Amino acid sequence: MPEATIPAEFEVYRFDPAKDRAPRYQRYSLDLAPHTPVLSALLRIRAEQDPTLTLRYSCRSAICGSCAMQVNSKSRLACETQIGPEMERHGTIVVEPMRNQPVLRDLVVDQAPFWQQYEGIEPHLILDPQHPMPEGRATSMTPAQVERFKETPRCIACAACYSACPAVSADPGFPGPMALAKLYRFVVDPRDTAARARLVRIQPNGLWLCLRCHLCTEACPKDVRPSERIRDLKELAIAEQGGTENGSRHAVGFKENIRDRGLLSEMKIVRQTSGVLGLASQAGQGIRIWRKKPEILKRPPPIEGLDELEKIYEALDTPPKEGS
Amino acid sequence: MPKHEVVVVGAGLAGQRAALAAVEAGKDVALISKLHPLRSHSGAAQGGINAAVGAEDSVETHIYDTVKGSDYLGDQDAIEFFCQRAGPTVIEMEHFGTVFSRADDGSLARRAFGGGAFPRTIYAADRTGLALLQALWERLGTEDFTLYEEWDVTNFVVREGRVQGLVGFDRRRGTFDEIAAPAVVVATGPFGRIYGRTTNAHSCTGDGTAAAYAAGAQLKDLEFVQFHPTALLESGILITEGARGEGGILKNAQGERFMARYAPHVLELASRDVVSRAIVTEVAQGRGFTGPYGGYVHLELMHLGRERVESRLQEIVDFSRHFAGIDPVTQPIPVYPAQHYMMGGIGTTIQGATNIPGLFAAGEAACVSIHGANRLGGNSLLETLVFGKEAGAAAAAYVDRAPAPAMRETDLEAATGPIRIWSARTEGEDPSALRAEMQAVMERYVGIYRNEADLLEGLKRIRALKKRFQFVRVVDRSSVYNLNVSDAVETGHMLELAEVIVVGAYARTESRGAHSRTDYPKRDDAHWMKHTIATRTPNGPALTYAPVAYTRWEPKERVY
């Protein structure tokens, strides 16, 4: 008894730099069971309709990270995306190469920028010769210490996060979600002896360029939640050396500022973030705001229930118990 | 023409470990791979890596379990060498940065695997291969070597009785190129894509094995093909043996825990060949479930509880949800065996040397042999690392005494001649069609249960496909990332290897390990306690046989 099928319509990005002047979209139609993965559909198109359709693929089980692409404008693994829900939601399946990486041909992109960012965070254990690994036995590591890696060891380097990241689009110097999640993995590794150096290095080198849009976490097929790992890194960096960048000074200032009165003092946060000189450099804008909103020069009065707020702060400052 | 001292082909765990050993020996090393190394199929290994580090366990027991698991076809000297290095190998990988799962006391956590007397499979949740691959790649990344990424290797050049270099296809640039090297290590993994239902990645097409065979290397024991008992029904995606190691059970359509009939002592944790045959028998005798994708049985994890399933079998939960629409916390997983592992491969010594000076092999592409007629779960990851290191070190040592390689202009022409013809054709068959037919033939005639009539029919059909392959056509003419060329090269490689499997299976008139002949159901030690050796001739493989190395373990009947 064969399974029921539905008609599936594909619009696939095609571009061969050897002969095309511009990309085009090619339509393919085939009948497929609704749970068919987009990758299987593309491979059937290659086998039955068009062997020139070019894509990367290998394991077809979401573990090799080869087949990340844009499916109906979302960065996804083609092997893990079923055609049924896509057809239901969009009436068609538009397949395009990942973003933020130049297209080599059709759905194949040049991943060099992505790998360079990964290599840039020194993705290997850095050891201190003063503290060598235990001779002839494994390092002792508790399950709670393994928990600290969170889901970062699941990363398959598919680059779906890199493709989805608007900060990468805006600034190719931004390491991107994968590299930062990988950095987090080494920072929390009890065997690595360079956690502090890694944090000090990343503070001025892109950590605070993250826009906190969480599109990487939405795109990640392995639940690494890169945006949350970036947040973790930011907290660790501040704990290590306080605010050193506009981004971290803003975060630290914001926290102190609210704790003080329960309301944001706008003058103060600018000074906390950019310093006195920074404040001066923004005087023009300050005057414009002051004309419409003269109260910005005053410290806001303490809000009612400030003691309740203090309790929240105290609770947040208490480290959670291991493993909880 | 680029020139290196040691060229490693294949960048999974075996290839990377070989490269690291050769780099550490001070050699100029190149690593060639069809995929970015982190995308290698080693990363798909789920369950774990064996090392007898538990207080109750011993290296001696690991050796015995492996010998028994091999159905006495494994070379006992090689198995001893292998098991003795298990502990240090796992510790080295831990020191390289692998994030293993841990027991409460901070030691490496262990789980039970089929065919093992004690829980000795060390793991990283259910993504042990990925954890090892990342750690090794990140360790190797601190060394100096040349990476040739997204290259298909088409030919090894052997002249004057030794390796001179190789010819490959650079996918990105669309060019065929030569690399001169006195020593080549083949670590291209398996060729499960010969079969229709396989747990192997699409990239597992045995390119290095086929190129070595074409260059005169001897292939050993290719008829021993492991079928993993539990693969998802339609896709063949692997559900780790760790699922049974954690307590998962198998049930037929009558709700019966049928393994009691086949392996009364260890039930689901019998050796893989035993469990696969049990499932096939249940379905064939009408006690399986039926559906659009054929018969199957149930793998149940529900009784283990959500917490345990979700923490220890996280990938399995995801696989089941995404690829089968099943939540294994609350529902049984429909499973049926699928091709999983090639026990056979390029015949090597313990140090990875083949019959061709300068050509070395390691990992699943090689056959030392430690797995014999059936591999135990948890031994393959260990194999890649132990023998990858040996082969890399041996290749580096060989370079010191090898003459300089001498490639010729004509080597490239000779290697690429057929491909230029395929690409010039205006008519001919697409390689994908031939590949699909080969997969169906191997599935139907050379599967879990074999017999003479089927094998003869299979051989006839594979040979007919080989003939048709001569008229294959490459439709894509682009110079950029022309996958159609790779399709054709891979299909040609697989047809050669398929033929060796069938010829070896036809000749071996006994049942041993994964090779089950219904017409010869018993193991026949008097005649068949020997390795099959296949050498390529223009008329197909010529078979000879080689003795099994014995040390201390007398063959016994294998009961689980």
Structure description:
The complex is a heterodimer of chains A (324) and B (560). Chain A has 14 helices and 7 strands. Chain A has 324 residues and is an alpha+beta fold. In chain A, the strands form 2 sheets. Chain A has a 5-stranded mixed beta sheet. In chain A, β6 and β7 (108-109) form a beta hairpin. Chain A is globular. Chain B has 560 residues and is of the alpha/beta class. Chain B is built from 17 helices and 22 strands. In chain B, α1 (13-24) packs parallel to α12 and α14 packs antiparallel against α15. Chain B is globular. The mean pLDDT of chain B is 96.
Helix proportion of chain A: 40-55%
Q: Over all CA atoms, what is the radius of gyration of chain A?
A: 25 Å
Percent of residues in helices of chain B: 25-40%
CATH level 1 name of the largest domain in chain A: Mainly Alpha
User: What percentage of amino acids of chain B are in beta strands?
Assistant: 15-25%
Structural class of chain A: alpha+beta
Query: How many helix segments of chain A?
Result: 14
Strand order of the largest sheet of chain B: 6-2-1-10-17
Integer count of domains of chain A: 3
Radius of gyration of chain B: 22 Å
Biggest sheet: strand arrangement of chain A: 2-1-5-3-4
The low-confidence runs of chain B, each spanning 5 or more residues with pLDDT under 50, are none
- The count of DSSP E runs of length 2 or more, i.e. the number of strands of chain A, is 7
Q: Which quaternary structure do these chains form? A: heterodimer
Q: Which term fits the overall shape of chain A?
A: globular
